[in-house]
Amino acid sequence: MPAEPRTDDTTDHVLGEGVALALKAEDSGDWKPVAKWLAQNPDRGQDFAKFLADHGEILDVLRPPPTPERTGSIVSGLELKEEIGRGAMGVVYRASDLILKRDVAVKMVRTGDEMTSAELARFRFEATVVASLDHPNIVRVLSCETTPNGEPYLVMPLMTGGSLSAWLKNRGPDRRLPEMLAAEIVRDIALGVHHAHQRGLIHRDIKPANILLDESRRPHVADFGLARPADAIATSEAGTPMYMAPEQARGEKHLTTAVDIHALGVMLFEFLTAQTPYGGDIGSIFRQLTDPTVVAPAVRRLRPDISTDIEAVCMKCLEKDPSKRYLSALGLANDLTRFLNGDAVSAQLPGFWDWLRQLSRTRPEPHLDYSWQVTIWFGFLILTTNASIFVMAQTDTAAAWVWVANFVCGATMSVVLWWYMLRRFRQLPTTERHSLIIAAGNILTYLVLTIAYVPLSFSIPAEQSLGLYPGLTVASGLGLFTLGSTNWSRFFLIGLAVMLLTPITAWWPHSSPLVYGGVIAIVMWYWTVTKALHFVIKGKLPEEQKKV
Q: Which of 471, 472, 497, 500 lies closest to 484 in space, CA to CA?
């Protein structure tokens, strides 16, 4: 049974703040304030995600209504009939050209009290940009005029097919497209995008809502309100989060045409699977985009019936590294043309060696405060505990004292994890979260092996407990090996090396406590020095990462 919606005034007020930020972000293209709001209000994520699911319709309702005096008015021989849409920079009307007797679209700025001077400047920039473009897959500008009040407006052909976004919604519950149709649509859009790139422009907001269809359902790129010259410095994370490239989400200042190619890949992914690669709320999308260990899911995992060729094209567009995407939108269009003609595409899905190379490049993301103190303590506790067990085995101490030593060690390591990690961060960095889980699993394994192999008796000597070390060595080596895929690729070799010590701990059990304790301590301290010197960003810890 669905939960009842919350109706208390505080909850509505808090969600209202998020909606207001979303309204502003929809117009400005800068969604970072929304992500920050979600981080501050994690309990509102589900309600806000529900809002985003229908955000197009809701935003239309919440935005100011059409300006009454414009509808029905005549501007330079154009009679404004009705409002048919609102973009990032203005309002679009269906209009009748009284002189040429045809219907056209007129894009005008919102009323002066709704737009800032910066937004007016951006509208004029868009007018200049679009007027310089002439391509069958870009919405043309028939004329660029100014009203008697000095407000600029654009006259464009009327796209009777509506937006690509609306067309997809009208397809019903299953919005997945046949792969040939999806390839054809993205190919045509890519050709229009390439035309803009050739003229030094990056669109920065390619998405289905900004693609308009004519009467024959041919796509046309529209809404260049967030476009920027390729050599300009970006001043915000402009764009729509679900279609952003990772470098956009990171707020990089020098963007390239690769951001539009990534957006084209997101659209192709969406056409094939009816979902975008990175889901969740805005904050979650930003985290997935900026986390180098998170990659887009394989298309065929979500839709096994499509060909590997179209999947390879899509995944190449979605590469986190811009240099691995298509070098140009034309290159993408050419590959899709080859696919449509039944020819082999240039993109290839990564093979075994590509996978190995990808793993070998795994490194911890830089962070202000890695918990390197944890591994200092772990190294000390493991070394002293196992040195004590070595002495117990040599002096015929009771095996029960091995229980005491291991459980004290496990409890102390748990306290260290809580003190330096769980207690200190409201939300752990991805690599630290993985390390925490692996460390907790190793502590549990340590204690379980103690229960299984160490007799709980004061009459049996500690020497009888040394059988736990082969299993303990394998478990610790496996934990380090796992760190290679989630944290740092060097741990693949370190984990394998530790596992190779297993026969030594089995053949020479009396030395196994010193071998195991010494090796693991060295690994922990090596990891400490490496994290502290190479992966910690020097600087003040921001507010959201301070201690709880």
A: 497
pLDDT digits (tens, 9 = 90+) for 310-334: 999 999 999 999 999 999 999 999 9
Residue 186 neighbours by CB under 8 Å, 6+ apart: 264, 267, 268, 271, 332, 336
Contact 94, 108 (CB under 8 A): no
Q: 88 Cβ partners below 8 Å, 6+ apart? A: 26, 27, 28, 29, 205, 223, 225, 226
Taking residues 222-250, report their average pLDDT.
Answer: 78
Helices (H), 76-163: 117-131
Q: List all residues 6 or more positions away from 31 whose beta carbon is below 8 Å from its beta carbon.
A: 25, 237, 239, 240, 241, 282, 286
Q: Angle at the Cα of 390 (from 387 to 392), degrees rounded to 5?
A: 110
Question: At 546, is the pLDDT very low, low, confident or very high (cuts 50, 70, 90)?
Answer: very low
Using alpha carbons, select from 474, 513, 521 the residue that is nearest to residue 496.
Answer: 474
pLDDT in tens, 193-224: 999 999 889 998 999 989 999 988 999 998 88
Inter-residue contact 339 to 309 (CB < 8 Å): yes
- CA 454 to chain centroid: 47
Q: What is the DSSP letter of 518?
A: H
Could you tell me if 95 and 101 are in contact, meaning their C-beta atoms sit under 8 angstroms apart?
A: no
Query: Tokens 């009842």 label which residue?
Result: 4
Residue with tokens 């390619």: 206
Pick the catalytic residue: 205, 260, 309, 369? 205
Q: Is 455 exposed, middle or buried (0-12, 13-18, 19+ CB in 10 A)?
A: middle
Taking the C-alpha atoms of residue 240 and residue 219, their distance in angstroms, rounded to an integer, is: 19
Tokens 């190779």 -> residue: 500
* Chain position carrying tokens 């040939």: 180
DSSP letters, 458-497, are SSSBGGGGTTHHHHHHHHHHHHHHHHHHHT-THHHHHHHH
**Quick check: is 205 catalytic?**
yes
Gap between the Cα atoms of 512 and 49, Å rounded: 54
Q: Is 30 helix (H, G, I), strand (E, B) or coil?
A: strand
Q: What phi and psi, each to the nearest 5 degrees, are found at residue 154? A: -115, 140
CA atoms of 165 and 168, how far apart (whole Å):
5
Q: Token pair of 52, please?
A: 């985003």
Which residue pairs, CB below 8 angstroms and at least 24 apart, start in 18-26? 18/44, 18/48, 18/51, 19/51, 19/58, 19/62, 22/48, 22/51, 22/52, 22/55, 22/59, 23/59, 23/62, 23/63, 26/55, 26/59, 26/88
Closest CA to 208 of 274, 282, 142, 301: 274
Task: Report d(CA 192, CA 190) in Å as an integer.
Answer: 5
